[in-house]
Amino acid sequence: MAEMVSAGILATGHYAPKKILTNEDLERMVETSDEWIRTRTGIETRHIASDSEDTSDLCVHAAKAAMEKAGLTPDDIDFIMVGTASPDYVVPSTACLVQSKLGCTHAGAMDFSAGCSGYIYGVTLAAQFIRSGLYKHVLVIGAEVLSRLVNWADRSTCILFGDGAGAAIMGPVEDGYGYIASELGSDGSLGGILNIPASGIAEPVTHRAIDSGRIYIHMEGSEVFKHAVRHMEATTQAVMEKAGIGIDDVALFIAHQANYRIIHSTAKKLGVPEDKVYVNVNKYGNTSAASVGIALDEAVAEGRLKKGDYLVLTGFGAGLTWGSVVLKWC
Ligand code: UT7
Question: Are strands 164-172 and 138-144 parallel, antiparallel or unpaired?
Fold first, then answer.
């Protein structure tokens, strides 16, 4: 059998829509306060897509930024994967719309649904395509326009979410660098604590579903909080063990940006010092599948990673799903 190729992230990109919604704006929409939102979540602003921007459009902006940095053209992309809970349509896939909008004429394309763990699942899958030699360049995108799926009258959810896209171009890298290990998990028995009840064929969108608000995101926040901390901690421990590294070896820790308190509690349990924890939930809110990709792109732009650094990405979300990846930056 041929030896596995090392696979890594060649370049990253992100996009956030221009419109910014502040906590003060939300104070005028629901019974809430800037103080409550900041202290309970750490969120100050979130970006909201315009009426003419769909999830595929956000993907295209993020992908173009990543392709430009990687020095690749649409023809170089072999496969496109989009992780999203807010696809443009149920059918066709958002990935196919992205393929067409970018003009990636040689690429296969598919969506996958892993909630807020989307970027972690995507990086893991793309790495296997490259390691096996099946593909050379895979475009992985986590993207959401959750602003069209939240109930703007429900203060317990509408203050949390934002729109955006995070992209990575993955490809072959120097031996021993890039993807080192991954650990993915799920528990479908708890799917009901974070879902959109009327969104598929089990409970179709009917007038009744619309009137009862079952077409919007439903979340039992404090339950989700507990599971998020528990699973992101456990899966990070497990993936570091697989990679043969300890917390002291990790240069940067990027967790799903849902809530500053979740990130902080997870990092504290793991013993990761604050200066190694990347946080931008204050600017973007919870962008679900996009969050880790946006954070990674910003961390790279800020020079937070150098060659040989160990990077840990961890995520948790609807499904329930969770996962962590260790990468050796290259
Ligand atoms: O991305 C996928 C995963 N998602 C997450 O990880 C999100 C996880 N959950 C969370 O981030 C937190 O649970 C929330 C931020 C959603 C809520 O924070 P919490 O500390 O768990 O608050 P809570 O839900 O227990 O609510 C506390 C109180 C309630 O009032 P009572 O019942 O104590 O009188 C809520 O009604 O806060 C009230 N509340 C609000 N007050 C002002 C809920 N939302 C708001 C609000 N403004 N926007």
Answer: antiparallel
Q: Using alpha carbons only, what angle is made at residue 49 by residues 45 and 54, rounded to the nearest 5 degrees?
A: 150
Average pLDDT over residues 232-258: 98
> pTM (2 decimals)?
0.97
Distance CA 309, CA 330 (A): 8
Cα(127) to centroid(ligand 1), Å: 36
CB contact at 8 A, 173 and 6: yes
Residue-wise pLDDT for 22-54, tens only, equals: 999 999 999 999 999 999 999 999 999 999 999
Ligand 1 center to 233 CA (angstroms) = 21
Q: Are 70 and 169 in contact (CB under 8 A)?
A: yes
CB atoms inside a 10 Å sphere around CB 170: 29
Q: Where are the alpha helices (DSSP H) in 42-164?
A: 55-70, 94-102, 118-131, 155-158
Ligand 1 lined by 239 (C-beta under 6 Å): no
- Check if 262 has its Cβ closer than 6 Å to any atom of ligand 1: yes
Q: 11-23: string of b/e by CB count within 10 Å (b at 16+)? A: bbbbbbbeeebeb
